[in-house]
Specification:
The complex is a heterodimer of chains A (219) and B (147).
Chain A lengths: L1 E5 L3 H12 L3 E6 L2 H10 L3 E4 L5 H5 L8 E4 L4 H15 L5 E3 L5 H7 L4 E3 L1 H13 L4 E3 L8 E6 L20 E8 L2 E3 L12 E6 L4 H9 L3
Parallel strand pairs in A: 1-2, 1-4, 2-3, 4-5, 5-6
Antiparallel strand pairs in A: 7-8, 8-11, 9-10, 9-11
Chain B lengths: L10 E5 L3 H12 L3 E6 L15 E4 L5 H6 L7 E4 L4 H14 L4 E5 L6 H6 L3 E3 L1 H12 L9
Parallel strand pairs in B: 1-2, 1-4, 2-3, 4-5, 5-6
Classes of the chains: A alpha/beta (219), B alpha/beta (147).
Amino acid sequence: MKIVLIGGEKIAYHLARRFLSKGYQVMVVNKNEKFCEEIAKKLRALVIRGDGSRRYVLEQLELDRTDLFVALTPNDQDNLVACLTAARVYGIERPVALVNDPDNKATFQMMGVKNVVSPTEILGSALEDSLFREQITNLLPSSEKISILRIEMTDKSPATGQAVKNLPLPKESVIGAIIRENEVIIPRGDNVIEEGDILLVLSNPKVQSSVFEVLLGEV
Amino acid sequence: MKGAIRKDEYYVVIFGCGRLGSRMANWLSTMGCSVVVVDRSEESFQALSFEFTGFTVLGDATELDTLKEAKVDKADVVLVLTPDDNTNLMVAMSAKEYFKVARVVARAYDPNNIEMFSDFGIEVICPTLLAVENIKNVLYFIGGDER
């Protein structure tokens, strides 16, 4: 099995380095002549200059069904066509595509490219997690349909001192439990939120940011 | 006509407002269709004539949001005419598979790409093959076909 990396400069270089050091055979395909020269000097990878979404370029790779085929260009359309060609013409079983616009993920999967990685999405959620880590923890970070959030209330939170029923929370969210010292309260409308409370909030990820705004103020 | 749709007014979305896209937009407008033209460069819309009565959408066709903005889901026909085969493939496939558009016509310069388009139910116009056929006809005297 060899590893074929289409496009993508820095990522391709570092991935190639990583897989070479693990003993795999690596092929790098890139349009950029200068980049190809550099890679060829630095790494033991086989370098091919050309557009990896073109059939005559892919032909030179002598692809085998079990090869790991990864499309990393900054253009979603090129990644899609490269993966589709690899799958349909050369029988690659599980081509992997990078998508830049996370919305395109669904399209790729409908076309039969099931292994899709969106760096935008990964970076986005990593950033959100690290930004809000102190006060907020997403207890179910992998779900796109529901967020279960653990939120700590401080004296600065606008919700502190307010009754649950008076909080202008979005419809698709609910405070499921309040942890106060060692007790768990399942809140009704009359319960007042106190400093030091830990709230467990269920919400649709789409309205998550307004939940934060209501409970914590501007974040 | 294959898969013909009959109604009073067709809603047509055209991707790419170059020489071909703009001409199609102008013509479809005069035929009474409601037309939306999408291009990522604002200048390209200058190619639309006074006959054009539709709307323009400025945006990158490879972003799904642009397709939503152009209301591809409501389209009877989508014409994908940007100069890049890969872009055309992706947009045409999104229109067909994601938005379930009845008729999607796309341009592919590379004849190798035709099969992939048609496997997904997309109708393909290949300027290269059209030109080859035309030139063959002009050169009918070579090759010995009876004319």
